[in-house]
Amino acid sequence: MAPTTTRNNWTKKMASRACLAAAVAASSSRGASAFSGSIRSRVSSAGSRTLSTLNSRSAFAASSRTASVVGTSSLASFGNNGCKIASAASRASINSIQLHMSSTEVSDGSTVSPRRVKTVNAQESDEQVSIKGWVRTVRKQKTLAFVEVNDGSSMSGIQCVLPFDAVDEETLKEIENLTTGCSINAIGQIVKSQGGKQSVELSATSLRIVGTCPGETYPLAKKRHSLEYLRTIAHLRPRTNTIAAVSRVRSILAGQIHAFFQKEGFNYVQTPLITASDCEGAGEMFRVTTLDTDDVASLPRAKDEDGKELPGVDYDEDFFGKAAFLTVSGQLGGETYASALGDVYTFGPTFRAENSQTTRHLAEFWMVEPEMAFADLTSAMDNAEAMLKSVVGVALKECDEDLTFFGKFFDKGLKARLEKLVSKPFVRVAYRDAVKYLQEEIAKDPSKWQFPEVEFGTDLATEHERWLAETKFDSAVFVYNYPKSIKAFYMRDNDEDGGETVNAMDLLVPGVGELVGGSQREERLDVLVDKMKDLDLDVEDYWWYLDLRRFGSVPHAGYGLGFERLVTYVCGIENIRDAIAFPRYPGNAEF
Question: How would DSSP label each residue in 324-351?
Answer without folding.
Answer: EEE-S-SHHHHHHHHHHHSEEEEEEEEE
